[in-house]
Amino acid sequence: MIDLKKMGAAAREASCQMARASTETKNRALQAIADGLAFSEPNVLDANKRDAEAARKAGLSEALIDRLTLTPERLQGVAADVRAIATLSDPIGEVFAERVLPNGLQLRRQRVPIGVLGVIYESRPNVTIDVSALAVKTGNVAILRGGSETIRSNRVLVQVVQQALQQAGLPQSVVQFIDDSDRKHVAELLRLHDYVEMIIPRGGNALHRFCRENSSIPVITGGIGVCHLYVDASADLTAALPVIENAKVQRPSVCNALDTLLVNSAVAAKLLPRVVAQLGGLGVTFRAAPRAMSVLQEEGNGSTEAAVSAAGAEDFDTEWLSLVLGLKVVEDLDEAIAHIGAHSTAHSDGILTETDVHAERFVAEVDSAVVYVNASTRFTDGAEFGLGAEVAISTQRLHARGPMGLPELTTYKWVVRGDYTARA
Known about the structure:
Layout: H1 4-19, H2 23-39, H3 41-57, H4 62-68, H5 72-87, E1 95-100, E2 106-113, E3 116-121, H6 126-137, E4 141-145, H7 151-167, E5 175-177, H8 184-189, E6 198-202, H9 205-214, E7 227-231, H10 237-249, E8 258-264, H11 268-280, E9 285-288, H12 290-299, H13 304-307, E10 308-310, E11 324-330, H14 333-343, E12 348-352, H15 356-365, E13 370-373, E14 393-394, E15 402-403, E16 410-417
Parallel strand pairs: 3-4, 3-6, 4-5, 7-8, 7-12, 8-11, 9-10, 9-11, 12-13
Antiparallel strand pairs: 1-2, 2-16, 14-15
Helix pairs in contact: 2-5, 2-6, 2-7, 3-7, 5-6, 10-11, 11-12
């Protein structure tokens, strides 16, 4: 039986211990997690293989199966990220915004842990380790609820984490796992406001909406990416092609993969056939708006009939998570920005251009968590940004936007020092 109130009470107690844990102790726990992943690799991969087989039998999409699959290389990458987090500066106790008032009071703000995090996620078992490692480094505590499709993998991974915590002299309840796929526990976790300070959902629109509508705890949402690249009239088209390919093909099942390519009308006839030929050869299919379809038909591209179909009403609002790419011709930068404003999820959007003033306008006017100039959207990732990993990618305008690393998992307190000072 899962007793979430009991788990919450244990988490609160562990939170008090973590608030005073030294950097050395936390880093020791992180190194033990990384070592444990290496030692337990056969068990982790065996459990993950059974999850993937069950997912396939259940009819899950190949995109979701790719997200939940761990390979030796991916698992080694997860362990490397944990070791990287151990090398980063500990934000807890960092002092900023110091000043002295005329009455002699010394004021400062210093970083402290948020407390207890409730993390609800789907498909990706690496999140179990990413969240655990970032929570440990920042002195936070986590209650995890992974998806039913990865429950076997997550059981083994949480065992690795809890054993590492114990080796470092920290409570195993720093990271707890709701080991039951019954969805009633999600609703119960969202009402655990006496113990949990923040809810972080990682999954699809339905999960995010459910959390926003049913939580009595603050919710940070993100991770849903309808991502765009706009190719400006001045862009170097030869250099642009590999960037477009990377953004779409390198790992299409993740949230920072490219969903829509916007092309300036001045270069559409030159670029679009090349995009269809090059990416189509890699298995990409296309959803083309009328003007893009017309350009391709006029150019007589041989692969058009097989690879390109007319875009539907919802296609430009779809996070594909697969080898599908939307194509649209726009007249100018204004139309590109307007399209992104109407269809983006404020995750990752970019411009390919040689015109500085256009790049500056794009950066100023596109309201996304991460905005790119002449780079692939695939870089929106905690490890790629030098954060070690991320607990989520926030698309909100709260204290955190984009990949949430160590500083984003802290809050602060005011510390005031006087000399037996009384207010006049």
